[in-house]
Design goal:
The structure is a homotetramer. The longest helix of chain A has 23 residues, at about 225-245. Helices cover about 30% and strands about 15% of the residues of chain A. Mean pLDDT of chain A is about 85; it is low at about 130-155 and about 250-255. The first copy, chain A, folds into 2 domains: about 1-95, 3-Layer(aba) Sandwich (L-fuculose-1-phosphate Aldolase); about 120-255, Class II aldolase/adducin N-terminal domain (L-fuculose-1-phosphate Aldolase, 3-Layer(aba) Sandwich). In chain A, strands 3-2-1-4-10-9-8 form a 7-stranded mixed β-sheet, with helices on both faces. In chain A, strands 5-6-7 form a 3-stranded antiparallel β-sheet. Chain A is globular, with a radius of gyration of 19 Å. Chain A is an alpha+beta fold. Chains A and B meet through helix 6 of A and helix 4 of B. Chains A, B, C, D: This is Methylthioribulose-1-phosphate dehydratase. Chains A, B, C, D: It comes from Gymnopilus dilepis.
Chain lengths: ~260, ~260, ~260, ~260
């Protein structure tokens, strides 16, 4: 499993190789408060290979040799195994609990990378946008804020919306477009979010991310640069949306 | 276009060469939250050459070879081209959408550098100072706060005002001076801000910056040090102005 | 006392040796605001040796040679000395005032590492959860928030609870479990917290940490990784708990 | 003036030499938001020599060769010069406007170092503690908060008080002691603060710092370590004091 051939999948002198990028990006995400306490993570898919950091480890201290590599697509499940790997680390590291959720982004959006954060901006957004159905209208430029209890639509104009792409992998939104991010409820086991996340992605085909109540957010893109850029833009929007709400700004705009 | 001669414009062992400084400063601005999600940017003009970072890229990962170089002033527009370049990167990088706005700072203020941030402090300031005409008087030392709906004047005493220069390129303000920063409305295409930004700069000839509602701020100076210093001072003033407003401090001062 | 033999206890080329790790981790904790002003600290126990940083020094500038090494368990107290050391630094550094509190984590939980922070999130939590007995019910998934005046129990669902272990050294909590962190009152001398901390640890046998009112928090784990991870998770929970409380979110959930 | 002999005063391979320490500490203070926009600064006195950073420069980019060196005490003023220097940088750098204020800390407290920050926590504290005479009683452990209009006394128990020394240069305060920090009004020219700062230091002989309304704080100590430690402790106390006030915590305690 961790043969020399398998290890070659994660050894490269190219700093942009996924096995080198994932540790570097995780260190940066740690500084942003997105992956503290071993939470959060990132996967990168290059064609038929998926690179994923292990579960339950300090994300800012990951080494390339800690990376799991999986084939994409996965072969049909067999009675012997849940999941097939091209490479597993030798140490007793566990595969990421996010794996089935990352797979949603590949299967439903053909994404090349998916980022999961526990950002407090994302979590506070899921706590302040609680529904059942909440509407704010008459905002500048005719946009609206609409929130539902099990899935939420945030609508307010901000330059940062232009950094988000339709469905996460399409063309960029314009300043006048509406940004829609569904919110799903958390479950005790991260794997169990797979179905409700997929459901939200189907119901909101233009959504570039899925928020998980009291937990965090999943954001994807065509490649790691676009996934990272969109995660930054959405995190910015969650942060300023929370600030606006706490400052009573949206209520004023509702009048 | 990216000939050896053109490339020589961005290759230097001097860390203070604009092609080296722009990547370094962008990394620093990223840490401050000013240019996340590929937003924001900086240009440096040294006499007849203007150095600008490309559009839509991760600002904290720019390399000197990514820099565009343009002549200043630009030759008259021809039917063949909108803009003339001394150097374009070989990769398929797009020129900055901020270019016409940076040009305003050269043409109207003779600036040597202009910085554009998406700082949340700037954006929150544009959301809390909403007008139509709002006046706060009887503040300490007789200064006043005055805000209009399409352009705003912030007036409150703070030591950091002394770091801002009259018109951005003149002598430093004193502690007792009034700081005036106009706010213009955002547009779907960044280029379309050119005229309203120019209008605000003419209407407020002493302004060292222009805020853009729900978007960010443009700040200029005689050189990159002065542009950076003023951006820091203004960002500090936006941040503490927002804190004061949310703490009810300005309202109290209005009595 | 600081003989060559004793010095060998803190000299190693292994970056994961406790004498190298403690300075590195303290620099990182300083960046997080946990150990500014010489406050806070960390100890690591490897079998029968305990490594502790000195008291009253700038935690972000500690060198391996500043580390104290103590035997565990300590020999019975003699009339000549309060505490036995395997190594003391040559310079006039004082032993950590946290030593008896760190010892609680060894004696009562068999911990391998204990972290003490002055994080403002922890302190604000001790100020906002003030009791005497305060209950919030009907929260999502039936969890409850319960606070008592001299010891507090915080209960609200969050993904980050999964990063905390039962008693700090047991199995991980599930998303549906209740997180209990007792709060004890501060004393003028840090050493005098020993008994009330031990009492709280006995009264709350599942608690992974003890908060100290107007002071900070002590968090332990089986080793330094698990102690650090749990400190990050708890700090995250204190921070978002304070944000929720200030946003009126818990009050709403109480209805 | 900048002869080889004078330059030797700022050239050293010792990282703890004041000419090396000042640039390093200023970079660290910049990260903390204390000296952005060229504001703030630090001086270090070693016996009869005072090392000071220049005025109006980017504090995070200072080099050892930018440092001014002055004799302490200064010779009596002559008709030819205001101030005597042992070394001035060759470039056209201006001496620090803080010089007379730093001198207060030497003359009145025999300090070895003085730090000046524009920290927003300090400034917000000067805006929220506005007097005329404001008293909060019945706090935990019998401490009180007392604020006057032109000088303020902050009193609330916090572990971080133990990091502050009586008069800034004496023995450490205990957890039960009262922390007193006078607030003086700002003036257009920083030099003009000299007399009111000295007056406040005489009136509050135990104060370890002086706050300047809408401006920042001056903190001193026996050496740079103690000045830095106390600046961190006080900044922590200003920050959490502001948080407590905005959370309504002090008002509740007043009842």
């Amino acid at each position: 499993m961790a043969s020399a051939e398998a290890d070659a999948l994660v050894i490269s002198s190219d700093p942009l190789h996924p096995a080198n990028l994932i540790p570097e990006l995780c260190r940066s995400f740690y500084q942003l408060g997105w992956v503290t306490g071993t939470g959060g993570g990132i996967c990168i898919r290059t064609g038929d290979k998926v690179y994923i950091a292990p579960s339950g480890v300090q994300k800012e201290r990951i080494e390339p040799t800690h990376i799991f590599v999986l084939p994409y697509p996965q072969p049909p499940p067999s009675p012997h195994t849940d999941r097939v790997f091209l490479r597993r680390p030798t140490s007793n590291l566990k595969e990421s609990a996010c794996t089935p959720l990352f797979w949603n982004s590949f299967d439903l959006r053909n994404a090349g990378s998916c980022i999961h954060t526990h950002s407090q901006h994302a979590v506070m957004a899921t706590l302040l946008w609680t529904g059942p159905v909440f509407t704010i209208s008459h905002q500048v430029r005719g946009t609206r804020l609409l929130v539902m209890s099990t899935s939420a639509v945030l609508r307010f104009p901000s330059q940062m919306i232009k950094g988000v792409r339709i469905a996460g992998t399409g063309t960029a939104l314009s300043y006048l477009d509406t940004l829609e991010i569904p919110i799903i409820e958390n479950t005790p086991n991260e794997e169990d979010l797979k179905d409700s996340m997929a459901e939200a992605m189907v119901k909101y085909p233009n959504a570039a991310a899925v928020l998980v109540r009291r937990h965090g957010v999943y954001v994807w893109g065509n490649d790691w640069e676009k996934a990272k850029t969109q995660t930054e833009c959405l995190d910015y929007l969650f942060e300023i949306g929370v600030k606006m709400k706490l400052a009573g700004l949206l209520t004023v705009l509702n009048e």
